[in-house]
Structure formats: C-alpha cells, structure tokens
Amino acid sequence: MNNKWNKMIYRIWTPFYDKVFNSGVFLKARSKVFEGLSVTQGQHVLFVGVGTGADLEYFNTLGVKITAIDLSPSMLASARARVSTEMDIRFIEMDAQSLDFPEQTFDLVIASLILSVVPDAKRCMGEISRVTKGEGTVLIFDKFETVKGKLSISKKLLRPLVSLLGTDIGRSFQEIIQPFNDQLKIHQDTPVMFNGMYRKIILEKVK
C-alpha cells in the first residue's frame, strides 16, 4: 500500500463506503465505540482519516472544535456534505503519517479505521501521540491481528489480496504501539466484532 494507490482506491470506494462501513454490524460497532465518550465544550477534537464522516454524527455537541483530515478529496467532500453548518469543524486534505499541527494541539484524537490503511502505521501512531495533549485521549477503532498474535491460514492467504483494496487485515497493535509505550498508556482494549478482529482501544497521553 502507498498513498498514491490509497487515493485512487478510496476515490472508487467513496460512493459505496457508507453502505458497507456505516450500516449493519459496523453501525452497531460504531455505536459501541463512541458509547460513554465524554467531550466537553471548549475541547479540540481531531479526526485522523475522517473518511465519509460517519463518526461525526456522534459529535453534535456545540462548543466543541473539530478538525477532520483525510488523504482522499472525495472522502472529505462526502464528509463535508453530511455535517450541520452549526458545527465548528474544519476539513483538511492531509496525510495521517505527517500531521501539520503543533505538538499537543488536541484534547481528543479519533483514529477510526486508519492504522490498518496507512502505509506506515507506526509513523501514523507517532504523529497521533505527538499532537495529543498531555493527559489527552486517543480513541482507536480498527482491525488488528488478535491479542494472541496469530493469523489464521485463511487470513494469511487473503492478506495480500485485501491489501489491494486499501487495507491490511494482519497488523499487530502491540507492535504499532510498542515504540510509544512511554507516551501512551492503554486504558481500554475491548473486542467489538468479528471475534476480536475489530477492537476499541482507548489510550491516555502521559503528561
């Protein structure tokens, strides 16, 4: 996977994305992911890889400043079209592996289905950590190999094919987070669907 390929793939994906990833089991999963999340007025939230903006529906709180970035212009256009004009939100075309923000800018960073998509997940994780404020929160919803760290034979065979669709089904979150264990502490790691393949992970930034 690379950025040029992903841009092309997600331009193709855009018209169908919500039908797959914002309906059925995925819709139920998203509800679980954002359940109990507390956001207060005056906080600044970053959506890393906002996609078509499905997650923005859970953030209709006035007084919350939102920045939403994505590499795909077509995805950003779709996200922009679905939000209320009353929301304080800014959309920016940007690479999640190279965030153009100062250190410790955001109180909350949402990384939904992005670490399995970017070419370099560790670089992306490092950028997420860098822009999160001390004692801030990172919320991750994504697919990873199981905590036991073993891919089934079928997934090993499917992995190269699925990567052509712009995502990786075999990345290890433990490997991704390992370089940043002194910066980010795991507060919650909960299986959400597909026997734990998709997980809700909440991280707290060390002050």
UniProtKB/TrEMBL annotation:
Record-annotated Methyltransferase type domain positions: 48-140
Pfam families, per the entry: Methyltransf_11
UniProt name for this protein: Ubiquinone/menaquinone biosynthesis C-methylase UbiE
Superkingdom of this protein's organism: Bacteria
GO biological process: methylation
Annotated GO MF terms: S-adenosylmethionine-dependent methyltransferase activity
Family annotation (InterPro entries): Methyltransf_11, SAM-dependent_MTases_sf, Thiol_S-MT
Keyword Iron-sulfur: no
Highest classification ranks of the organism: Bacteria, Bacillati, Bacillota, Bacilli, Bacillales
Claim: Methyltransferase is one of the keywords in the record: yes
Keywords tagged on the record: Methyltransferase, Transferase, Ubiquinone
